[in-house]
Amino acid sequence: MVIADVFVARMKGDTPVNSTMSVGQARKLVEQLKIEASFCRIKVSKAAADLMAYCDAHAC
């Protein structure tokens, strides 16, 4: 089970009995969540429009 899956399962309250998260795994998860939280996000509609404009500009 991936660390993030364990975290999500714990948040939902449906963690399997045999699933435990070590301190090291929790630290890795926290670091990953910090990295993801720092990403600059844009709306999907803007990303789609940018992609369409790029494709139009670079079509053969």
TrEMBL record:
UniProt keyword Heme, yes or no: no
Keywords: Cell membrane, Lipoprotein, Membrane, Transducer
GO MF term (any one): G-protein beta-subunit binding
Record has Cell membrane as a keyword: yes
Topology in membrane: Lipid-anchor
Main location per the UniProt record: membrane
Transmembrane segments: none
Known function: Guanine nucleotide-binding proteins (G proteins) are involved as a modulator or transducer in various transmembrane signaling systems. The beta and gamma chains are required for the GTPase activity, for replacement of GDP by GTP, and for G protein-effector interaction.
Oligomeric form and interacting partners: G proteins are composed of 3 units; alpha, beta and gamma.
Name of the protein this chain belongs to: Guanine nucleotide-binding protein subunit gamma
Phylogenetic classification of the source organism: Eukaryota, Metazoa, Chordata, Craniata, Vertebrata
